[in-house]
């Protein structure tokens, strides 16, 4: 999944949130069964990582299988001031810092509206909040890394 894929109209919801106290570019992906955090973000901010009991085999968008054996368990994700916990598998990716998949979205009773580019969270009976994405609201300090390859 690349940044270009996220800019396809109505395809995904993209935005900035906090992981612990670090800003992160996040993709809300209802097509992903699990949630992920980039190995670069883990190294940069030294988040706690554990070895998982069972390896997770995921198929990357180009059809390549990747084995994941580490995760950030009970990782603090802050969305519009709401503190949530996520189980994020560590994966090497360059266009996003975090991908929040169905395991996270369903636990938060989230509804993804791709057309309106928003995610509505209904965590408890009385707590409901909506995350909206707008290109004009993207923070100027968010820089997407480029990877050089030989």
Automatic annotation (TrEMBL):
<protein>
    <submittedName>
        <fullName>Uncharacterized protein LOC120284161</fullName>
    </submittedName>
</protein>
<dbReference type="Pfam" id="PF08284">
    <property type="entry name" value="RVP_2"/>
</dbReference>
<dbReference type="InterPro" id="IPR021109">
    <property type="entry name" value="Peptidase_aspartic_dom_sf"/>
</dbReference>
<dbReference type="InterPro" id="IPR032567">
    <property type="entry name" value="RTL1-rel"/>
</dbReference>
